[in-house]
Amino acid sequence: MSAATFQSTVNIWSTLGVVGDMAFDGPLRATPFNLFSNGTPNIIGNAFTVTSGGNPEPSGNSALAGTATVGGSGIFAGILVNSKDYASYGTTNGPLNPTITLPDNSIGFLANMGYFFVNLPGPANVGDLVTYDPLTGNLNSITPTTSFTGTISTTTLTVSAVTAGQLAVGQIISGTGVTPGTRITALGTGTGYTGTYTISVSQTVGSATAMTAANQPAPAFAASAAYITTSAGVDTLHIATLTSGEVLIGQQVFGTGVAPNTVITAFGSGTGGTGTYTLNTSGQTVASSGSPEAMTGPSNLFVPNCVVDRYTTNTTGGLAVIKLTN
Fold first, then answer.
1. From which domain of life does this come (predicted)?
2. Looking at beta carbons, which pairs linking 36-41 to residues 24 or more positions away fall under 8 Å?
């Protein structure tokens, strides 16, 4: 009987473009934190917030500023970057398998200044603002402003064209003849693009006028009846009943049985409300038309002072370089 053999070596290649790596020389600030996310994966390239220690800056002679959790809504701690010296614990498929996830109670370096490679789930452009999911820390991006053409009659904004971004409740709009501080307060027939919207100030802008709206992270949605089907390698989210919020491209989808990091990548018959939406996953089936379930899309938060610095144009997402200037 031959002796059992075990893997005893791990090959390491230094290369450019690994998530969490520094992309370019420049000002850099990264602080060590104890990572504790109560079982949620501590993934390199994701956003973290402070849970104890009170400040992401080290103080005195302490080697550790505090404890941080992935996502969250507290003080921004930084993006988990790859310092090249983390111990690798492998995966459930083997202790030597490659991974970019650190276990709870690891020491991780969280950067709030510098240029770093990250993953974005959907299309982006240089200069887009970077956001993160407070549940998972996954990054996303939105354009700084929405540009559109519209008219206003009393408290109804009618949008005839959108050239960049998406409209949403809460945005403050501006343009020639628009009363300062005018805010979108409700959706009408428009759900991000052309259509009508209710605004906060009664006024008249009679002719088609170029307007802009400062963007906010994608709002949350809650669906009381939804399900996911798969066909020919494409997964589709079906929303039968939307109880609150708005469904937008780039939002993550959560629900019992929904695969982690499931993201809406395109509109189908739905454009913000009920209907169908294309997902970035392939092969998952969740609930059914006869037995739907509740699904949600939590609202993202801004990564402070962070923009997309490099990105390859595409529609499916992928590797990007972000610039942190905190």
1. Bacteria
2. 36/67, 36/68, 36/69, 36/104, 36/105, 37/69, 37/70, 37/71, 37/104, 38/69, 38/104, 39/104, 40/69, 40/70, 40/71, 40/135, 40/136, 40/137, 41/70, 41/101, 41/136
DSSP string, 207-245: EEEEEEEE--PPPPEEEEEEEEEEETTEEEEEEEEEEEE
Instruction: Compute the distance between CA of residue 151 and CA of residue 153 in angstroms, rounded to an integer.
Output: 7
- 178 SS3 class: coil
Start-to-end Cα distance in the chain: 62
- Determine the pLDDT at residue 218: 61
pLDDT in tens, 218-245: 667 889 999 999 999 999 999 999 987 7
- Which amino acid appears at position 231 of this protein? S
Whether 155 and 202 have beta carbons less than 8 Å apart is answered as yes
Query: Tokens 């970057």 appear where?
Result: 81
Among 76, 66, 201, 207, which Cα is nearest to 134's?
Answer: 76
Structure tokens at 216: 């906010």
- pLDDT tens column, 45-103: 999 999 887 444 444 434 445 899 999 888 899 999 987 778 878 888 888 788 899 99
Whether 249 and 122 have beta carbons less than 8 Å apart is answered as yes
The mean-pLDDT minimum among 52-61, 173-182, 296-305 falls in 52-61
What secondary structure does DSSP assign to 36-71, as a single string? --TTS-EETT-EEEEEESS-SS--TT-S---EEEES
